[in-house]
Amino acid sequence: MFKKIIDAIDRRIELLDLFRQNLSEYPVPAGLNIWYSMGAVLLALFCLEIITGILLLMNYVPHAKEAFASVGYISGVVPFGWLIRRVHAIGANMFVFVLFLHMLSVLLMGSYKKPREMTWVVGCVIFGVTLTTCLSGYLLPWSQLSYWATTVATNSPGSIPVVGDWMVQFMRGSDLVSQRTLGRFFAMHVSLIPFTLLLLIGAHVFLMRRTGISTPPWSKTDKTIPFYPHFVVEDLKVIYFFLAILFAFVFFYPQISFPPDALVPADPLNTPEHIKPEWYFLANYQLLKLVPNEFLGIIVQGLAAGLIFFLPFIDRNNERAAWKRPIFGPLAVFGILAYIALIIWGHYS
Amino acid sequence: MKNAHLLRWLPRLLLDVHQKYVCVASRQPALHLGIFDQSRRCVFQIKFFLFISFFLLLASSAAIAQESVCFTCHEDIAKDWQQSIHSKNGISCHNCHGGNPKDADNPMDPKDGFVGKPTETGVPEFCGKCHAGVKENYLKSGHSAALIRGGPNCVTCHTAHKQKRASLDLINKELCTQCHTFDRAEKIRNAMLMSESEITNLEHRIDALHAQEYDIDAVKKSLFATRNQFHRLTHVVDVDLILKETTGIQSEIARLKADVKEKEKIEAKRKIYGSIVIVFFLLGALIFWWYRNTILSD
Amino acid sequence: MDENISRRSFLTKLIGVVFGATGILFAAPVVKYLIPKSSEGGENIFTNADGKPILENEIKEGASFTGLSRSGPTIIIRRGGKLRALSAVCTHLGCLVKWVPNEDVFFCPCHAGKFDVNGANISGPPPVPLAAYNVETANDGRILLS
User: Fold this and answer.
1) pLDDT at B281 > cutoff 80
2) For chain A, which residues make up each domain, given as ranges?
3) Measured between alpha carbons, how far is residue B81 from residues B63, B64, B70, B92 in Å?
4) How distant is the Cα of C11 from the closest Cα of chain B, in angstroms?
5) What range does the domain containing B191 cover?
6) Which of B280, B291, B298 has the CB atom closest to C21's CB atom?
7) Beta pairing class for C98-100 and C105-107
8) Cβ proximity of C30 and A51 under 8 Å
9) Residue A109, class by beta-carbon neighbours within 10 Å (0-12 exposed, 13-18 middle, 19+ buried)?
C-alpha cells in the first residue's frame, strides 16, 4: 500500500530518479580521506546553529535594557535553555574551527587549483561572512565581554584615513556601541546573514558538484564508490565524532565561551580588565598590536586576506601536493605556524 | 608627566589592552571625564610614540579610579587604597573624605564637603556614614566604651585604607593581644567559626553555579544579607549574643544551603546526562565506521 | 559471505537505532523548550495586564475593573460594597464584555450580547452564562479568586 503510493507519486514527479542520480549512483572517488568530510560537518553544524538560533530567538529581546536579562532567563529559567544557548555559542566556535580545518586541507592538498577556483573563492566569502556572523552574534548577550569586545573590534577601521571615522560610526550606528549598534547587529545576525550564508553554501555545493570532488594528490586509484551509502556513512562518522567533542565542551567546559566577563551586564562606563577578542580574531588582534601603525596593520591584514582569496589565480602551478613544492610548501607551513603563533601570543600577552 | 608613578600600579594586562586600543578610549569621553575629548585622532599624529605614553597614562588612570587629583600628592595612601575592597567596589577618596576630586587647584575645599582625617574618637562616626549597622553594634561594645581611653576603633583592626573583605582572619592573636589576652577573642572566634566557614563555603558554591549560568541572584542576595547581619552582630564583641543569634543565622544558612544543593544536584545530573550523550555520539561514530568497513569489504 | 550479509543487516538495524536515538536526543530538549510552562501553583491573584496585583480598595463602588486571573481575562465589579468576579470572556465568540452601570448589565461589543449582574445570558447570541468566581481579599488587599 505504502509502496504503491510512493510509486504513484514517483511515476509523476520522478523524484527517485533525482535521488539515484545525485546520491546513490553519484560516484565519488574511492581515495577520499577524513578531510573530505569537513564540509559535511560544517553543514551539520550550520543546521544546528539555525535550529538553536530560531529557538533562542523566541526568548531573546534585542534591547540594550533587556538583552542581558533575557539571555539570563533563557539560561536560568527556560527548560533546556542553557543547553540550546551553549550549543549555539560553542557550536559557532566549532564551526569556525572546522572551517579552518576545511580550508587548511584544501590548501595543503592543492584542491583549489583549476578547475575549482570558483569553489575556493566562494568558500573564502563564506569564511568572511562566518566571521561577521560571529562578531554580530557576540554583541547580542549585551554582557561586559560582548560590549567591550565589540567596541574594540568595531574600532579598528577608525585608523583608515578619510573614511575611517565614518566607517566606525556606520558600523555602530552611533558614536559609541549602543542600542543602535545592537539593533543593526541583531538584524544582521538573525536575518541578513543566515540567508546570505545559505545562498553561498548552496553555490559552494553546486560548484563542487559541477566540478566534481577532487582527489588527494597521492591517490592513484581511479575507482569510485557510490556517494550513498558509502560516503554518507563516512561523513556521518566524522559528524558524530565532532558532535561528541561539541557536547564535551557544552557539558564540561562551557566556560570556553562564557568567561566571567560574559556573566556581567554591559557597563558602557567601565572597561573590564583582560578584554580579548574570541580566539579566531586573536591573530588579527595580536598583529594589530605588533605593527606600530594601526592603519599599516589593517593593510597587512587586507593583503593577507587578498592573497588567500586570489590564491588560485596567483598560484597556477600544476603540482598539487604542498610538500612537493619547494617554495609554496614552506611558505604555506610558515603562514599556518605564524597564524597559530599569533593566536597563542595574543592569548598570553 | 606628573602622574608617571601611576604606571607602576597598573596590571600588565590592562596596559596591553590599552596599548593598541588607546584610540578606543579616546572615543569614550565618559572614560576620560572629558579630559581630552578633543583628541579624536591619535593615529596620524607626527609624534605618535611620544603621545601614546601620555594617552596611556590618562586612559588607564581614568579607567582605574574615577579621578587622579588626590593621588598626585597622597601617593602612599593611594597605593594602600588600591589593595582595598573599597577600591574594588569603586569607593574612592571623596566618597569618605569629601572634596572635589576633579578640581586640581582646590580639591580639599570644605565647601565641597571635604572633611579630611577624622579624630581617633571620630572614626566610628566616619565609617558609620555607610556602615550604619556595624556602627550601631560597635557602640554597644566594650571596644567602644574603651575608645576614649585609647580603645580600638574601626581602623585598629580593619586598617585605615587597605581594608580587606572582612573575614575571620581578622580575629587573630597578634591583633587582639595588643590590648588584652586572646582567650575572650578566641571564644568569639570559635563561636563564629562554624557559621562563618559555612557562609564562605556557600559563597564559593554559589560562584561556581553562577559560572554555569544558574539563576542564583536571589540566593546570592539572601546570603549577602545574612553574612552582613552576622558580621554586624560580631561588633558587639559579646560571645553570648553571638551564640544566641547563631540559631537564627544557622536556619537561614540551612535554607540557602538547601537551595544551593538542589541546583548542584541538577548540575550533577546534567553532567551525567552529558557524559551519556558524549559516549553515545562516540559510539555512533564507531558504528558508522564499522558499517563503512563492512560495505567496503563487499 | 552469509556471515557478511547477516552482519550487514544487523548493522543496518543498529544504524536505525542510532538515528532514532539521535532524533530523540535532539528533539527532547527542543520539545521541552517549546512546551508552555503550566501556570504555577499557589494563589490565583487578580492582576492587571502586566501581572501587577490589583488591590481591593482600587475598585470603587459601582465601578468595574477588567484584569487577569489564572482563568484568563476577568471582570470585577463592586456593588453594595461587595466585589463580584466574573469571567470577562463572552461565551459567544470570546470578545471581552464591558460593565454598563446604567443598565446593570455586562455588554459584549462584538454582537451585542448581554449578561445580568450574576452573569446569566439575558439577550443576544451568548449561549451560556459567564463563569462566576468566588472573591476573597487577602490581608494586604490583594484579591484572590477561586
Assistant:
1) yes
2) 2-283
3) 15, 12, 12, 8
4) 6
5) 181-270
6) B280
7) antiparallel
8) yes
9) buried
What's chain B's length in residues? 298
Residue B104 within a domain = no
Please report the residues numbered 90 through 149 in chain B whose beta carbons come closer than 8 angstroms to any beta carbon of chain A: none
Q: Does A233 touch chain B (CB under 8 A)?
A: yes
Chains contacting chain A through 3 or more C-beta pairs under 8 A: B, C
Dihedral pair phi/psi, residue A185, rounded to 5°: -65, -40
DSSP character string of B134-150: HHHHHHTSHHHHTGGGT
Chain B residue closest in CA terms to C17: B284
Using CA atoms, how far apart are residues B202 and B199, in angstroms rounded to an integer?
Answer: 5
DSSP assignment, residue C132? E
- The answer to whether residue B61 scores a pLDDT higher than 50 is no
Task: Indicate the helix (H) or strand (E) that contains A340.
Answer: helix A328-348
Phi, psi of A114 (to 5 degrees): -45, 130
Cell numbers at C15, concatenated = 544504524
Question: Any CB–CB contact under 8 A between C40 and chain A?
Answer: no
Signed CA dihedral, B252, B255, B257, B260: sign only = negative
Contact A261, A275 (CB under 8 A): yes
Give the tens place of pLDDT for each residue, B96-121. 888 888 888 888 888 888 888 888 88
* Residue B162 domain flag: no
The class (CATH top level) of A2-283 is: mainly alpha
Q: Write the DSSP symbol of residue B180.
A: S
Boundary residue ending a domain (B19, B39, B64):
B64
In this predicted complex, what is the ipTM?
Answer: 0.88
Task: List the grid coordinates of A277.
Answer: 577578542
From CA B42, how far away is CA A165, in angstroms rounded?
12
Find the DSSP H helices in chain B.
6-9, 12-26, 29-32, 48-64, 69-73, 75-82, 85-88, 93-97, 123-128, 132-139, 142-145, 154-158, 173-176, 183-211, 217-234, 239-297
Which positions ≥6 away from B138 have C-beta within 8 Å? Answer: B124, B128, B144, B154, B235, B236
Which cell numbers hold the place of A88?
549555539
3-state secondary structure of B165: coil
User: Any CB–CB contact under 8 A between C17 and chain A?
Assistant: no
Q: How would residue A179 be classed by pLDDT, with cut points 50, 70 and 90?
A: very high
Work out the burial of residue C47: count CB atoms within 10 Å of its CB; fewer than 13 is exposed, 13-18 middle, 19 or more buried. Answer: middle
Distance between CA atoms of A315 and A325, rounded to whole angstroms? Answer: 11
Task: Give the tens place of pLDDT for each residue, C37-81.
Answer: 766 666 788 888 888 888 888 888 888 899 988 888 999 999 888
Q: Which residue do the cell numbers 601614546 mark?
A: B52
The predicted pLDDT at position C39 comes to: 63
**In total, how many domains does chain B have?**
2
**Residue C22 touches partner B, C-beta closer than 8 Å:** yes
Cell numbers placing B130? 555607610
